[in-house]
């Protein structure tokens, strides 16, 4: 437990450096002296109700979803829990819609996350340059994050419309040659979605990176300066590596948002956006809720969940291992 | 003219009053402001234009020569009932997840026992789960429980309970990181004086938690208000529609009337924009887990 406490202390940016010797006992340093294990029974009413809700609604539901995917349940009536089949999973490789949506999901994950991080880091570096009205700039860049996908999808449908803002701007600056029906062409649908999502979430990346930038101790900059590092080198060698944990946290959150981009696509294109913009989340909803292919929808949800787990699992595990929990 | 200055982050930077670099920096920042606000700008100009002005002018132009508030009145009357439903859902959902999150984090942070870290890892993972993975069972579960058959508002109650359950993990994690920084000496002392855990919570922890309650309530308010997927999967009765769902329906029925769509989008977003503008600081804190 001492090592856990010390690692917690190291994670706490406010603790003074150099005090993490492993000799502290309970009570010596009130900060980490907690109530003992003997109070366990008394603590049960505090955490048990919520824990049961989470186990039932989250983990129970995930398990139940797996079971439903194995029943082959379709159409009317109730699923038969007696017989199990892998038929739903066998169907997937031959299903063109499924394959397209898996491809699009992965493309969306990579492009959306990568571009948002780069733009977010750029915004954070700009805003961190001791500017006037920093709060106002920050507020505006983060504002889209406060809006729902439904609202942003409606705004962006109008932005992309053939008589909308984007084409009007292109025409105004004499580029009417590339004005275009952006949502009408399959080649641009997914890119249009990604562009709008980056608009919505790059401000979030900025906030994460700003917090990261401001937790870097002064002496790191000073040491680099004394060593005669150029500004570019300072950023690349000193700042960017220290933003690693910010980046990892942001990647996890962004990827989860990307897997959820359902709302945005559903409001923009309905439950059948076509193979060019279909993602797993939409295919899952269409199969289960529109076509009543409940087991197949549940099976697609399992794939989606597995994809999320490959992202979340290592993150939650390292947080757990390093004692951040 | 360059002078070395330091700000609170301690980063030494070269700041001069009117250097070319500064001008370029502000030009970039302002250009980005334009880019980030352009969807809202085009929505706002469109929502105030008469049909005539809409067809004759570009979305870049303000609604001069054809100003109207009709789209706002139409969208407002269409969305009114769903705004009421959204408030009826979001207030209990946000408050109860925050309270349960606070109690859970207290129980799992301030008492040492093996296994609590594992539970917290489960809570953390639950924050990131894609809701598609639980949608079919949720629909099944609520049709079995059958609140919707018992009462015409039952669906809305089901949706609210769902939001409470799915809000708990993030609230617990947020409170947890806050409680880790709380000084334990007070709690230890109170314990030695024979105070119960409940009394310690009420007298010491709860009053100290108020800033974190602000953060979690704002976070949950925004999340629940903005939710579309759970509502879409669980609500079938139009009179129970929350505002995101009704806005989507409005978009479908007013496919060509961009003015009404844009006004509707602003009306639906107004509560979260207001919360964001009033409590920007706490909003940002909730985002950086």
TrEMBL record, chain A:
Cited InterPro entries: ABC_transporter_permease (IPR051393), MetI-like (IPR000515), MetI-like_sf (IPR035906)
Transmembrane spans: 44-67, 106-127, 139-159, 190-211, 248-269, 294-317
Entry GO terms, CC: plasma membrane
Gene3D superfamilies: MetI-like
Annotated stretches, region: Disordered: 1-27
Signal peptide range: none
ABC transmembrane type-1 domain: residues covered: 102-313
Membrane topology: Multi-pass membrane protein
Subcellular localization: Cell membrane
Pfam families linked to this entry: BPD_transp_1 (PF00528)
Keywords: Cell membrane, Membrane, Transmembrane, Transmembrane helix, Transport
Family the entry assigns: Belongs to the binding-protein-dependent transport system permease family.
Name of the molecule in the record: Carbohydrate ABC transporter permease
UniProtKB/TrEMBL annotation, chain B:
InterPro entries: MetI-like, MetI-like_sf
Annotated GO CC locations: plasma membrane
Bilayer topology term: Multi-pass membrane protein
SUPFAM superfamilies attached to this UniProt entry: MetI-like
Signal peptide feature range: none
Pfam families membership: BPD_transp_1
Keywords: Membrane, Transmembrane, Transmembrane helix, Transport
Subcellular location: Cell membrane; Membrane
Ranges annotated as spanning the membrane: 23-41, 87-106, 118-139, 159-179, 200-221, 258-279
Domain ABC transmembrane type-1 positions: 83-279
Family affiliation: Belongs to the binding-protein-dependent transport system permease family.
Protein name (record): Carbohydrate ABC transporter permease
